[in-house]
Amino acid sequence: MRKFAFAALFALILTGLTFGGFVRANDDHEYAPIQESAIKYKNWTFKTLDGKPVEFRHWAGDKKLVLVVYYAPWCGNWKYESAVVSKLYDKYKDKGFDVIAVNEYGTAAEAKTFFGEKGAPYTVVVESEDRAKVGETSHFNYRRVSGDTRTWGSPYNVFLEPAKLAKEGDLLTERASIVNGELIEAEAEKFIREKLGLPAETK
């Protein structure tokens, strides 16, 4: 029954019958498909949960594919997706894939509580901590450009290929592959494998 439900949801997304850029499933998930969007993604420097600066261009380095996932630590949909992100990271981190999570609209303390004593397996940085600043973040601007009309937009996913990014200047790329909601795990894995040059998995 679950396989049928997922197949129906995936078919709905592929046919473009989405609502506000995502599909709300019966269990309150907000799945969305991967799509290319002209978001004019810019370089940034944010601090980790421990206050150390991270410049994105330098961090991305010679990685093959990176996922920048913007999230609010109190968001239920991020709680759903975080398990998927960790799973994909663990599976492909040795193949050239990496993840950096950007905390939004919640404090660093809330983020630390979310990830627990062991912390996140991937890098976590903070853009904003104040819910009142929702309309003032780069995260908000990217979402609006890509058609995401959700109030908080958590999670919001951006896939980037470092080799294709500009080597200098503020603008990294004119276009990126984005997800206006939760990743669809099967679609995300297929996308990652293709970008890493890995063969399709056989079931």
Question: Which short descriptors sum up this protein?
Answer:
23% strand; alpha+beta; single chain; two-stranded antiparallel ribbon; Glutaredoxin; 31% helix; eight-stranded mixed sheet; 6 helices; 203 residues
Structure characterization notes:
This protein has 203 residues and is α+β, with helices and mostly antiparallel strands. It has helices at residues 2-14, 56-60, 76-92, 108-115, 138-145, 185-196, and strands spanning 23-24, 30-31, 35-37, 41-42, 45-48, 53-55, 65-71, 97-103, 123-126, 156-160, 171-173, 176-179. It has one domain: Glutaredoxin (3-Layer(aba) Sandwich), CATH 3.40.30. 31% of the residues lie in helices and 23% in strands. The strands form three sheets. It has an eight-stranded mixed β-sheet with strand order 3-12-10-7-8-9-5-6, with helices on both faces. Strands 1-2 form a two-stranded antiparallel ribbon. Strands 4-11 form a two-stranded antiparallel ribbon. A hairpin with a 5-residue loop joins strand 1 and strand 2.
